[in-house]
Fold:
Amino acid sequence: MYIQVQKYGGTSLADIACIQKVANRIKQSCTKDHKLVVVLSAMGNETDRLIETANRIYEKANGREMDLLLATGEIVSTSLMGIALARLNVSAVALTGAQAGIEVSCVHSNARILKIHTEYILKHFEKKQVCLVAGFQGRDKDGEIYTLGRGGSDTSATALAAALDAEECEIFTDVDGVYTADPKQVHSAKKIPRICYEEMLELARLGAGVLHSRSIELASRHSITLHVRSSFNHVTGTLVVSEDQLLERAIVRGVSLKMDEGKVSVMNLADQPGLAAGLFGKLAEANLNVNMIVQSAPAKGLNTISFTVMKEHLEEARLLSEEFISEQKSGEIEIIPEVAVVSAVGIGMKSHSGVASSMFAALAKIGTNIDMISTSEIKISVVVHPDEGNRVLEAIHQAFNLGNEPF
Amino acid sequence: MYIQVQKYGGTSLADIACIQKVANRIKQSCTKDHKLVVVLSAMGNETDRLIETANRIYEKANGREMDLLLATGEIVSTSLMGIALARLNVSAVALTGAQAGIEVSCVHSNARILKIHTEYILKHFEKKQVCLVAGFQGRDKDGEIYTLGRGGSDTSATALAAALDAEECEIFTDVDGVYTADPKQVHSAKKIPRICYEEMLELARLGAGVLHSRSIELASRHSITLHVRSSFNHVTGTLVVSEDQLLERAIVRGVSLKMDEGKVSVMNLADQPGLAAGLFGKLAEANLNVNMIVQSAPAKGLNTISFTVMKEHLEEARLLSEEFISEQKSGEIEIIPEVAVVSAVGIGMKSHSGVASSMFAALAKIGTNIDMISTSEIKISVVVHPDEGNRVLEAIHQAFNLGNEPF
Structure:
């Protein structure tokens, strides 16, 4: 049985005309002799609209009722797709996440898929029906509804592909694939034909925004090839595959720029063991996600720890840091409300030395001051002044020849 | 255990401000020591908006996917009410029809409630939670979603009241109660303090529009008192009760005017047995609902059968009637595209004679020609020219002294 999973994002379902176009595309996919599962996001900005409505009623709206509310967005688009396919004489069935047998953990707004009871979908396959599944949602054993968090429909699609042992999972979006950099920021950016899970994961976390991190983790664990492509054309997009399926191991596969973080520096702390543990323990307790952390070697017995957080958490981070220094009875706080984080990601870095130095040389050439540096096995990130972000991004893109190199 | 059921209609939930007002009202109801179930309709015209969207995709949209789509309207308003109550520190839980244990028959767009599995609601009562239930919907044994048809939330509320053996079922709407006539049509119309199920059923069928027929039938079967009242004030509304709970048996309780029907006359049919059965059998086969039927005594061996149907079915009725006369090889068709149906309803008619003649006298006094007459035990309806509808309505309202008579 050849099973294919497709997922269509909100921009591909922005209005009725879009829904009808996607319906036609689904009909074309059906001509082959195979089983098809289609996962749908909510239409356009419907999720945001629902959140805004709820927040107008109660700014602290959350939990159970919020999940029940948000889940309707995907049910509406899925039902409408069923109606659009009926018009095209395609035998299809629209299913809520619960009806598709998606069982999730009991964590409102951020549930994880625990199991997919495939018997529901298989039953519809027997009736030769295309299964349309509302993404972003599932149910627990008692029938309570939970959502999977932002971008959760990617995860729904990948989990279905894994559970059904599908050949392919196509992620349809409004871009042609994953690019070496955001084409809006770097004009010479090129589409990447193949990227491995690890690289994609770093780029997704860095805000490339085309795939939900959890879906990449799932795809990696179950060796599902994800095909990120546009719903507006038939061009082949980017294949997200395991490292051994790469055509070549690029030193730098892509670069990204994030402008949504601020920086907190806790300076002149009297050096003593457990400083970092104390500070970041405090932040973790408050569920505050820290992105980059840099601690410099102590000078004259005084220590400095810097970290970046999302702008919306900056004020909370400042308060907690102030609490920390008043407990420590030493130190002072410096806040930089906006920084640019530029990163280069590539699986080839693992085995190549000199990548960091090439990157720093490129920055030196354009006279940019580096504020923080952080590296992982397959990623190098630098923090620079926000006004410099775009220039640095372009410089690194060019330094690694990403715009010209044919893959 | 004192259990109360409330139902709020779409006009009471038109926007966020309305939802917050209703939330306050629910909070006030909670101060007493009792259990509360609140059934909610979709916000304002949301159901119409969803239907229109579906029809823009496919004008023949119906069945399974349409039900799944429409059910979201009530889930949204119910979730938002849960959020509004959370803001007021009221412990409440928002439930879909399925989650509230409402099991229905497998008829899309027009399901009937078969059973309410009260264990779900009772479980929440134990946790001292107000149960908010999405109206208009339910599930079958397999978890498929069905809707109950227009006005179905009244039925949801009444069925819940019956299953939970509730003391009261309040139907909150945008009017103060049931009136002796539509106050927009008859200025002297007065609110009716008590009306019996049978009268209400006739008035509901006649388009009084405040209560869904099926909910009245259910209330009657289980002797549930329905309290129809406004969500915008605290005035006592109309109690819908059994005949023995009436304060008095009015000869005419209320009058109504319907302008949404047209008339078909099949004239000059050669008289023979089975004419009516043949014609109406044909219409029934096509699922065409006929309202009034009048057959006059044959004159010179020729028969005339007239009937009224909703305007939107008039063309289909004409085609079927033409088919019928061509089979009969006699007869001709006359169509009147719009008629006015004026009715007087009162349980006291059962035991009073002369009601019809008073009514006809009132019409004669204003010089109105009566086109058709139809009577039941507790109702008299006349068909008149559409231009005469309002005058006739007022004349009958006055003839039975409905505007002055104190109840």
In short: The CA atoms of residues 91 and 127 of chain B lie 9 Å apart.
